[in-house]
Amino acid sequence: MKDNKKILVAMSGGVDSSVAAYLLKRAGYEVGGATIRTWASGNCAEKNTKTCCGVIGVEDSRRVAWKLEIPHHVFNFEDVFKTHVVDYFSKEYLKGRTPNPCIACNQHVKFTHFLKRARALGYDAIATGHYGRLEFDEHSGRYFVSEGKDPGKDQSYVLFPLAQELLARLALPVGDYTKAEIRAIARELDLPVAEKPDSQEICFIPSNEYGAFLERELELPDMPGRVVDRFGRVLGTHHGYYHFTVGQRKGLNIPYRHALYVMQVIPSRNLVVVGSKEEVKNRVCRVNSINWFLLPERNAPLRVQAKVRSRHPKAPALLEWISEDEVKVTFDEPQEAIAPGQACVFYAGPRVLGGGWIASVEMAERAKEPESLEVGS
């Protein structure tokens, strides 16, 4: 960052990015702020006032910029957001996969597209309020991301797709602080967002009703289908497989002797396969489209710690090379709800080695796709 004197901060209107702008200004950088408009159609524009796509987010960022005495810009990224995030999200769900729109947004919108716009305005680099640390490995000459100081807020998992060229022009100022420390700084500065709550939902689906969003966005018809166990026995019905994803419990509404979880979604048959909490666990998956921060040796299997969801604890695993762009990941212990479409990120201690997208899951014997779906129907 020593040559990046002029930095544009992606300000969402939240406390983290607001304090990030302050920390950089305090460190002597020439700082500006910019808020991106990402999704201004449908219910989000009407109801969502807390996230980056809402009008309140823009206004809160502008108020903070005024308080910090820095310039503020508003970028309209609706088109690129629609293409790389909303359309991607919809297509993945229709394939029965579990997308991660926040990672897609980071990769294509909040970092890559944002940096292009920042450079066009004369800024050297960009910054965000993500809880992660950016480091440089002198031996390899490569940048990498490490976990942030606050284990409860660490966001290193969602940063794995970032390219080296982008990392060279990126700052992550809040990674060396806990959330409590960031809020304390905001209170000390009397920032208007000091007590603003964190956003927990996907910004363009504030209701968290993914199925309803897809029905509205894609104009899907009602698609009644069956909910079956691993033997093909019908346990209930549903109104469309796209309402469900691996590991989900909510919305099944099936009385049973134990809690039921989604094991598999089979779009071609409009089927939702369910089982017990143990049956939703697996050990093996294939991961492709891998982005490596730190390039490993490929002449032998690699021991790592891996995460299959942002809030999933790191777990010991073995990577075996399938090709230049694909690995087989075998966890030491079964992991809950490994879902195709989600990211699998590889760690060595706090360091992110790299990560990719889960292409397929090797189902445990008890959780294989039912061979006959007529049993019990």
Q: Under the CATH scheme, which architecture of the largest domain would be assigned?
A: 3-Layer(aba) Sandwich
- What best-fitting shape do the alpha-carbon axes yield? globular
Task: Kindly state the percentage of residues in helix.
Answer: 10-25%
Major beta sheet, specifics?
6 strands, antiparallel, barrel
Helix/strand-derived category reads: alpha/beta
CATH class of the largest domain: Alpha Beta
Q: How much strand?
A: 25-35%
Q: Fill in the CATH topology of the largest domain.
A: Rossmann fold
The N- and C-terminal alpha carbons lie at a distance of 63 Å
The number of domains: 3
- Uncertain spans: 41-53, 366-377
Strand order of the largest sheet: 12-15-14-13-16-17
β-strand number: 17
**Alpha carbon gyration radius:** 22 Å
Topology:
Elements lengths: L5 E5 L4 H12 L3 E8 L4 H6 L7 H14 L3 E5 L1 H17 L6 H20 L4 E3 L4 E6 L4 E6 L16 H4 L2 E2 L7 H11 L20 H9 L6 E4 L5 E5 L22 E6 L4 E5 L5 E12 L9 E6 L7 E9 L2 E11 L6 E6 L2 E12 L15
Parallel strand pairs: 1-2, 1-4, 2-3, 4-7, 8-11
Antiparallel strand pairs: 5-6, 8-9, 10-11, 12-15, 12-17, 13-14, 13-16, 14-15, 16-17
Helix pairs in contact: 1-7, 4-5
Description:
- The protein has 377 residues and is α/β, with parallel strands linked by helices.
- The chain folds into 3 domains: 6-189, HUPs (Rossmann fold), CATH 3.40.50; 224-275, SH3 type barrels, CATH 2.30.30; 281-367, Elongation Factor Tu (Ef-tu), domain 3.
- The chain has 8 helices and 17 strands.
- Strands 12-15-14-13-16-17 form a 6-stranded antiparallel β-barrel. A 5-stranded parallel β-sheet has the order 3-2-1-4-7, sandwiched between helices.
- Helix 1 (15-26) crosses helix 7.
- It starts with 5 loop residues before the first strand and ends in a 15-residue tail after the last strand.
